[in-house]
Amino acid sequence: MTSKKVVELFYDVVSPYSWLGFEVMCRYRNVWNIDLKFRPAFLGGIMHGAGNKPPGLVPKKYSYMTKDLHRASNYFRVPVRPPTDPFEVMFQKGSLSAMRFVTAVQHMEQGGDKQVEQVSRELWRRIWSEDKDITKPESFSEAAKKAGLSDSEIEKALKLCTSQEIKEKLKHSTEEALNYGAFGFPMLICHIDGKPEMFFGSDRFELMANCI
């Protein structure tokens, strides 16, 4: 029996394209018979480390992105609706605390990635569909409760996400993404015959399928 090929998905909930890629890969993992590994990381660290500039800071790219997200949302049936002030959400508030919380949930989880999948999805839904905050502890609690975590699990994750251990774990994941060559998210690494193949964005699924 052939073992499943491993695909790592590096993402940040502040990125709407990451949400698209995330949902599509969740749908395809059984069809492609792959072992999908969620790799929460910090997009701000990626942009800084790669010397990249966010598309939101380039007027023409931002204008295109707004239209493109609407088309992609309809096509992939992911309810992406930009927040009232995307600049504030993405560049002033950011996602560092949120990604530490996601990392804490993943660190706690035993026997799979179901909880981190659900929590990530609920955080995306808050920021990119409901125009809600993702920077405060109560925001994490609301997202985690909708994701099915118990009160005790949420309390534990809230404490853990401020620990040095989780901060270092998120930093390490971000550095791993940079070492693979990341310059933005989503980034997917397909491990084919011992060789990592990198794919960026949410529009390379046909090439990925061919590679796999």
UniProtKB/TrEMBL annotation:
Top-level division of the source organism's lineage: Eukaryota
Matches recorded under SUPFAM superfamilies: Thioredoxin-like (SSF52833)
CDD domains: DsbA_GSTK
This enzyme's EC code(s): 2.5.1.18
Active site positions: S15
Catalyzed chemical reaction(s): RX + glutathione = an S-substituted glutathione + a halide anion + H(+)
Entry's Gene Ontology molecular function annotations: glutathione peroxidase activity; glutathione transferase activity
Keywords: Transferase
GO cellular component: mitochondrion; peroxisome
Residue ranges of every copy of the DSBA-like thioredoxin domain listed in the record: 6-210
Coiled coil segments of this chain: none
Gene3D superfamilies on file: Glutaredoxin
Record-level GO BP terms: glutathione metabolic process
Family according to the record: Belongs to the GST superfamily. Kappa family.
Protein name stated in the entry: Glutathione S-transferase kappa 1
UniProt source species: Gambusia affinis (Western mosquitofish)
